[in-house]
Specification:
This is DdrB-like domain-containing protein. With 453 residues, the protein is mainly alpha-helical. The chain has helices spanning 3-11, 15-26, 84-95, 125-136, 141-149, 158-162, 179-185, 196-204, 209-212, 229-239, 256-270, 274-282, 286-297, 299-308, 310-321, 334-351, 355-363, 370-381, 386-410, 422-437, and strands at residues 35-39, 45-54, 114-115, 121-123, 167-173.
Length: 453
């Protein structure tokens, strides 16, 4: 308990004063909201949950005057926040708060500050100090209103936030970690020192809801389509003039560097999976890149899935990349199957085998799911048609999102009873693909008939 609270308790005149004080303390922190997964600069994945706390309840490394906070564990602050440069950074944050960039982020070094269960700031001391200073200087009204208006996106109640005088959106770390190591790994000094995947997560913070609403690549996932011009302009506007050097040609056309940067940021925003982001940044094989390009088409829908359910999104994307896990339920199968399907295709290409042969070999040991196998066969049959693959990926994400929304509205009474599983959704996707592209162009679902998994 901080000193001001202790003093207030000691000065309370009667039991009613104590009750009033305790009630006010209860409004210094909301319950946990939706989950959000982050990775550190070393690639470690950490689960967090959103909540809002009053700025005065945060244990930050330094006081607003820059002096060291004696209540803060020294080992959790690898930076010298007493330096003039650090004070200037805090002042810049305070005078130019950008609420949308202080929310969700795939990197632990960006977005809303990350705290432990004791509200000690483990990542984002500078951001926390900047937000607090903004409140002290009367410059945080827009930030506060943003949290109230967007509370539902974080699984929180706007009324709880409106009762706080200085609300701060944070992410409470849920995964057990070495706190000192986590703090060190979450402090990245400069964008230029980041690997491509780390830059992708840093850039993803610029892809706000309004910017993503403009994302409109061609049906085959081409980012340079004229339909996507407004999105590219918005992205450049968000990252600012100082960061755009080398991103446009002399006559204003996007350079390869810009397109690569946008591509990586889109994957970081939509899929938030370190392996998938690395794959899109580094994969040289043309056919594999065609698959990845097709995933652009579904990016907006997967980004929406993330806001509907952090856990559903995480488990879906995890399965899209390597998914050799035994997962239960619709929310834990979808991207698992997509990721596993991509792995099956890569394994077949690396070994010079047909994907059917790899599936048969894995089937002997029960190492792949029928859902992943159906998707892998579909990818192989359509790996020269990014448009067809993109349509399937997009329909898959949309149907999952529709189901998530329905579950929220019906409080679990899905379509009037009975769970809707991934096989049912894949079957519906297959039917729509065949209607749109012709008979025999859908997914091969025959393996479900003989599956006992």
């Amino acid at each position: 308990m901080n000193k001001s609270v202790t003093s207030a308790l000691s000065e309370a005149a009667d039991i009613n004063s104590v009750i009033a004080l305790v009630s006010s303390l209860e409004r210094r922190e909301t319950r946990q909201g939706r989950s959000s997964y982050v990775v550190t600069s070393k690639g470690a994945e950490v689960k967090t949950a959103f909540k809002v706390v009053d700025a005065s309840s945060l244990i930050i490394s330094n006081n607003l005057d820059g002096t060291i906070n004696p209540a803060f564990p020294e080992e959790l602050q690898p930076r010298d926040r007493t330096r003039l440069s650090s004070k200037l950074q805090v002042n810049r944050i305070a005078s130019n708060l950008r609420p949308a960039q202080l929310t969700d982020s795939g990197m632990s070094s960006h977005g809303a500050p990350i705290v432990g269960p004791d509200n000690v700031v483990e990542s984002g001391n500078g951001r926390s100090m900047g937000i607090w200073r903004a409140y002290e200087q009367g410059q945080a009204d827009e930030y506060r209103q943003y949290l109230i208006d967007h509370a539902k996106e974080f699984g929180l109640n706007s009324d709880d936030i409106s009762q706080m005088s200085m609300p701060v959106l944070v992410r409470e770390r849920l995964t057990d970690v070495d706190r000192a190591q986590f703090a060190r790994d979450s402090n990245i000094s400069d964008l230029q020192e980041m690997a491509a995947s780390e830059k992708a997560y840093a850039d993803a913070q610029f892809l706000t809801e309004s910017v993503m609403a403009l994302f409109n690549p061609s049906d085959d996932g081409n980012l340079l389509a004229r339909s996507n011009d407004a999105f590219i302009r918005a992205f450049l506007r968000e990252i600012g003039d100082t960061a755009t050097a080398g991103l446009l040609t002399a006559d204003g056309r996007p350079t390869k560097q810009l397109i690569d940067r946008i591509q990586n940021a889109i994957f970081a925003k939509a899929y938030k999976d370190e392996r998938l982001v690395r794959l899109v940044a580094e994969e040289p094989d043309p056919e594999m890149r065609n698959i990845l390009t097709a995933l652009n088409t579904a990016a907006s829908d997967f980004a929406q899935m993330q806001s509907l359910s952090g856990d559903v999104h995480h488990d879906t994307v995890t399965g899209l990349v390597d998914g050799i896990e035994q997962l239960n339920g619709l929310d834990k199968q979808a991207i698992a199957a997509l990721q596993e399907a991509i792995n099956l295709v890569r394994e077949a290409k690396d070994n010079g085998q047909a994907v059917e042969e790899v599936i048969a070999q894995r089937g002997l040991f029960g190492d792949s799911t029928p859902e992943a196998e159906a998707l892998a066969l579909f990818i192989v049959a359509n790996n020269r048609s990014a448009k067809r693959m993109g349509a399937a990926f997009k329909k898959l994400a949309q149907k999952i999102n529709d189901e998530l929304i329905h579950q929220q509205q019906a409080l679990g009474d899905m379509f009037g009873g009975g769970d809707v599983d991934l096989r049912s959704i894949l079957s519906a996707v297959s039917d729509e693909i065949e209607t749109e592209f012709g008979e025999g162009k859908g997914l091969s679902l025959s393996m479900f008939e003989n599956s006992h998994r």
